[in-house]
Design brief:
Layout lengths: L18 E5 L5 H13 L2 E3 L9 E4 L2 E3 L6 E5 L8 E5 L8 E9 L6 H9 L2 H4 L5 H19 L2 E9 L7 H4 L1
Antiparallel strand pairs: 1-3, 2-4, 5-6, 7-8
Helix pairs in contact: 2-4
């Protein structure tokens, strides 16, 4: 995964943590779909799947989607407004592998200059909506359409090591 600065972040670590205001009620489903789509595009997924504060999922446990699914236990908040999330993984031997299909964007085919030309000829740039809500809708639609054109989705078969990075035999003992 890349941060906003363009630097590669370490998404192989099992100890990445964070909190997100993630609505679980129907009126905010669009933002949830965007977040899930973003996680999916980087080969990540959240495993909590339930509210951790009121009707919101404030806390997440995100791991690589090709890892074995952990067993998640969510304890209620005690000393802060964050839930305690405990994840248990079934650790396999170092040599366990499998093959699976994943959907990824063809980022290697992305040509920035072509993208900019198409963006400059888009409705968003030429005739931007005056209403802020319509502007956001047009922004999302334009960028999604341009990304689908310049970095389309495709299926790739990958060979996966099911060993969790950082969990050496010494740590497991």
């Amino acid at each position: 995964m890349r941060s906003r600065t363009g630097r590669k972040t370490n998404s192989d670590s099992a100890d990445d943590r964070g909190d997100v205001r993630w609505q679980t009620v129907p009126y905010d489903i669009r933002n949830t779909v965007h977040l899930v789509s973003l996680l999916d595009s980087f080969g990540l997924c959240d495993h909590v799947h339930k509210p951790t504060r009121g009707d919101h999922q404030l806390d997440v446990f995100i791991s690589r989607s090709n890892w074995p699914a952990p067993v998640i236990k969510v304890d209620p908040p005690l000393m802060s407004d964050h839930a305690l999330i405990v994840a248990s993984f079934d650790v396999m031997s170092e040599h366990s592998t499998s093959t699976t299909s994943v959907t990824r964007r063809r980022w290697r085919s992305f040509v920035f200059d072509d993208f900019i030309v198409d963006l400059s000829h888009s409705q968003l740039v030429l005739y931007p909506p005056t209403d802020v809500t319509e502007l956001f809708v047009e922004y999302d639609k334009t960028l999604a359409d341009l990304l689908d054109k310049h970095a389309p989705w495709h299926q790739v078969k990958v060979r996966l090591s099911l060993r969790l990075h950082g969990l050496t035999p010494n740590v497991v003992r």
